[in-house]
Design goal:
It is a single chain. The chain is α/β, with parallel strands linked by helices. The chain is built from 8 helices and 8 strands. Strands 7-6-5-4-3-2-1-8 form an 8-stranded parallel β-sheet. α1 runs parallel beside α2, α1 runs parallel beside α8 and α5 packs parallel to α6. The termini are close together.
Amino acid sequence: MTLIKACLNGARRPEEHPALPLTPAQIAADSRAAVAAGASIVHVHPRGRGGRESLAPDVITPVVRAIRGAAPGVPIGVSTGAWIEPDAAARLAAVRAWTVLPDLASVNLSEEGSVDLAYVLAHLGVGVEAGVWTEADAELLVERDLAAVCTRILIEVERADVGEALDEAGRILAVLDRHDIAVPRLLHGANESAWPVLDAAIAAGLDTRIGLEDTLLDPEGRRVSGNATLVRIATDRALAARSAGNPH
């Protein structure tokens, strides 16, 4: 069945949702609840002082340890987005300084220094999830042979227009197919496109993700209570598709 990743907080601000997990204890509790609801992986954006996202070891370490204590054995992914640390060299230095390693880290291929960062993470033994936002990103992945160090390719089509998001996803998938890239693929949208793209991923037999990072609403547009609710809805949709005869 479709693998579902829980994306628990992202870059959202605390005022956007009262259940947004920010502290290590909150993130750990939400991780445990999301796994109980059907998630197989958790993806988080650790926060430091004032709730600011950070790649610093003293921010990453307590979050990773807390999740491992609350949800043993569940793979933990973190973001390395350039908005967290805009300077590519400083971003590399921060990652090299990690003492407690997450299992996975997402690397957005459109960002400066992404190729070097991917190879550094792979050398550390951290699984690289390549964030592919456009057809050009997919071509870069092929040109720089990043499939060799990737654990997963994240096809992230977060356009507000659902049709445009799905068209972009199709172009990205076509590049990967044309070059016989066999790395596992995860497809997701965000906000308006979150649920339609999730359903498209399930129908295509691709992995997907859901959580407060991507949407605050259920498929009917109602505000949800938190991450576990989103994951449970996604799990139910995947199970329903399977029961309806979808071979995936």
